[in-house]
Amino acid sequence: MQQLSKNYLKLQVKKNFIGMIIFIFLATHWYLSLFSQTFFLHRYAAHKMFTMSNFWEKYFYIFAYITQGSSYMSPYAYGAMHRLHHAYADTENDPHSPAYDANPFAMMWRSKNVYMDIYQKRVDLEDRFVKDLPKWHWFDSWGNNWISRVLWGLSYIAFYVVFAEYWWMYLFLPIHFIMGPFHGVIINWIAHKHGYRNFEVQDTAHNIMPLDVFMMGEGYHNNHHANGSRANFGVKWHEIDPTFVVIKVLNALHIVRLVPEKVTKAQEKPKETVAS
Ligand SMILES: [Zn+2]
Ligand SMILES: [Zn+2]
């Protein structure tokens, strides 16, 4: 009898774990894809907040491809597009801005077009927008190829076919397909509309939440716009930036080398937090 109830308990634990697999997969894909975006594409490629050897650069290219999968972006094209965002934030030359786009879909569609123009070299950019950006042409060609994107999409579907227990779990699939643009909307739309500001910057950048549990530090967007060279996006005591913690560890392990930040006047003294 005791053996029977033990076996029943074991079966229940196993069943509950299987029920959780889809959520574990979604969370893992969310954070790993986001890490590649914020660590490699944003802080390394676009802003050069730290350097790394050629070996580690290739390593993180491959890591980004595996974790971003169907929404892989070229660090070169992303980096140039993002530098345009900082230079022209909330003006008509900004690749994405809620001030100039009617809704998040229109904004992301325009961003995609700017990204493709840069990727296909259809636009001439000043040197400051492309200087020192990483380049790995054949690898980017494969990552941006529709065959690669569709194969990743099919592999996400296959995972759900094996592990999803209920039909409604399939509703999460589109998030996997467009994970990168999904994160893009949160920062480029929401963080340019809602939240609080530590610094009076010239554009609409806000910090989304006092503790950025979902966006790995990217959510402290007002702090980042105030000083684009600062590797730690958190400024106030509660603004813990998990990606910066990882960068510090990689720096201690000599995998990356942090570049000393340039402190701006605005950065020296955050003003009192104001909500808006
Ligand atoms: Zn911004
Ligand atoms: Zn930036």
TrEMBL record:
Segments passing through the bilayer: 21-40, 60-78, 146-163, 169-191
Subcellular location(s) of the protein: Membrane
Keyword set, alphabetical order: Fatty acid biosynthesis, Fatty acid metabolism, Iron, Lipid biosynthesis, Lipid metabolism, Membrane, Oxidoreductase, Transmembrane, Transmembrane helix
Domain Fatty acid desaturase, first and last residues per copy: 25-244
GO-annotated cellular components: membrane
Pfam family, one: FA_desaturase
A molecular-function term among this protein's GO annotations: oxidoreductase activity, acting on paired donors, with oxidation of a pair of donors resulting in the reduction of molecular oxygen to two molecules of water
Membrane topology recorded in Swiss-Prot or TrEMBL: Multi-pass membrane protein
Record CDD domains: Delta9-FADS-like
Gene Ontology biological process terms, A to Z: fatty acid biosynthetic process
Record family assignment: Belongs to the fatty acid desaturase type 2 family.
Protein name: Fatty acid desaturase
Lineage summary: Bacteria, Pseudomonadati, Bacteroidota, Cytophagia, Cytophagales
